[in-house]
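Handout, section B. The chain below has 585 residues.
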Amino acid sequence: MKLKKALLIFICFIFPVSIFSGCDYIKSIFDESETSAVESSTESSTGDGITVEDKALWYNPDDDYSVVTMYLTVKEGNSGDGTNHTWQEVNSYSVFYYQDLGIERYAVEGILQVGDENGLVEGQFGYDAIAPNSIVNVRGNTTSTAAQKSYKIEIDNGKGMWREQRTIILNKHIYDTVRFRNKLSYDLMKNIPGMISARTQFVHLYVKDLTGSNTTNGEFIDYGLYTQVEQFNNRYLRNHGFDTGASLYKAEMFEFFRYEDKIKMADDPEYDLKGFEEVLEIKGNNDHTKLINILEDLNDYYVPIEETFPKYFDEENYFTWLAFQILTGNVDTTSRNYFLYSPLNSEKWYFISWDNDGAWNTRRINDTNSIEGYEIGISNYWGCILHQRVLKVESYRQKLDEKIKEVMTYLSRDKLSPLLQRYSEVVMPYLYSTPDIAYARQTQNEYYDILNELHNFVDINYQLYLNSLEKPMPFYLGTPIITDDNKLRFNWDVAFDLDNERITYKIQVSDSYLFDNIIYETDDALLPEIEYNMLPYGQYFYRVIATNESGYSQAAFDYYEDRNSIRHYGVISFFIDSEGIYLDS
C-alpha cells in the first residue's frame, strides 16, 4: 500500500494532467481553490492503480444533531435568468406543470443569510449581503405537489460558498413521518467502509417575501424544519476527493439493460439528450464510451458475469451498498435513487446512495401485501440485469451474506437506539409546533410508536432477506393472446430457484382482483404457459404463483393497484373486446 501511494504521488508530480482530483485535474474550470486530500473512511482500489476515497475528515466539522438557522429574503428578478416571478408563483406549481408546458421552473432572486434564532450573526454566510446572492426555486418531483415545498438555492458565482457548497438543497421530507430518515441513512453511511455518503444538516428556515403584492411586510416568516443535503455535482466530487472529470450519472429509470434507442454516444446523429436522461441523468462528462461498454458486456450472456463483474465494479462498494439498502428496507433502489460514479481513467463503477426517504419505512414492514410481494431481500433486485446476474452466482451470494452480517454491526440496536433518540429530540419540537404541526402525519404518541418500531427494523429486514433466499425469484407475466383456434393462451417467464429446486405454477383467472370468483384455476403447471377457453368481452384478472419443492412461494413482479392504492402482487388486469386483448394500463 505504501508503495502504491508513493507511485501515485510520483505520477501526480510528473504529469501535468492527472486522473486524481487531488492533482488539480481540470482545475482551471473552477474559480474556487482545490481542497486538500485527507485520510478516508472508504478506500477501494480499482485494480488499475486508481484509489477511490470518500474523505473522512470532510465530515468532521458536522454536528449531526445541531440546527442551523437560515434567513432567505426573496425578490423578483429579471427575465434574463428566469427570476421575474413572485414567491407565490414559485410555490404554486408542481414539476408536472412545467413538464406539460415544456418550460423551466419559475424562480426568484434570493438573499441567503445564516445566523441563529436571534437573527443574523457576524461572520456567518451572507451577514453583510444587501443585494441578491442566489437564485431560488422549488425542487423535487412528487414532493413538488406537496403543500410544504422543498427548495434549491443556488449561490451566485463570486458570492462565496456555505460550507464549501454553492448549491443548497433544503428538503422538507413531508412524506417522512419522522422527518429524519434521509439524514439518518447518510449519517450512518459516513462510518461504514465501502459506502460513499454526503454531508447533511438540520436547518430552520425563515423566509421574507418581497415579491408581488402578497409580501410579508418586511417580516421573516417561520417555514419550519428542513434537512440540507449536499448536491451531487462537480463540487461534490471535488469536496469528497473524487475525480471532477469523471463519469457521473443519476439513475432515473435504469436497470442496466442496453437501452440501444436511448443510450448513445453524444456524437451519434440519433443522440437525444432528453431520451438519454429519461434513463440516466448526466452529471459528469459527456463521453459515454465506458457506460456503453459495461451495458454491452452485461447484456451479452456469452460473457460470464464472473468476468464482467470484477472488471467493472468494485466488490467492496457494490456489496456494501446492496447490503445497506436491504437492511434499511430502501426498496426503491432497483432502478433509481442512486448515482453511478467512475473515475476518468478507470473502468470501475461505484454506487452512491441518493434520496433515502424510502428507507426505514415501518409501514412497508407492516403491509401484509408487501411481505407477500417481491420487495424483500434479494428478490427486490431481481428485475435488474446487473443484480440478477451477480446474485445467480453462489459465491457472490456468499459475499453478500458476509457483507450483510458486517453492515449489521454498524446498524445494531445498541448503535441505532441513541441516534433515534437524539434525532427525535431535535425534530419533534419543530414538527409539533407551527408551521409544521399542520402537516404532521401522525400524533405525538404515534410518532413514539414509530420510533419503537425502528429499533427492531434492521433485524426484521435481515429475516426478510433470509426468507428471500428460500423463495423462487419473481418473474414477469405475459399478455394473454388469442390463438388461431380461438383459445386464450397465458404465458409468463420462468421463475428461478437459488437451490435449483423444481418449480410448479398456480394460475388463477377471475373477473375480480380479489379472486373471490375463480373462472379458471390450476396449481400444478410445470411449463410457463397454459391455454383456456375464450372468455366473453369484459375485464379480467390473472395471477401466477411459483412454488418450489420446499413449499416456498413467490408472486410475479406485476401487480394491480386498486382504488385504495393497495397493491395486489402477481396480478395483471386485462380486457377482451372486439379488437382483441389489451392490458389495463
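Note. The chain has 16 helices and 25 strands. Compare this with the example in section A.
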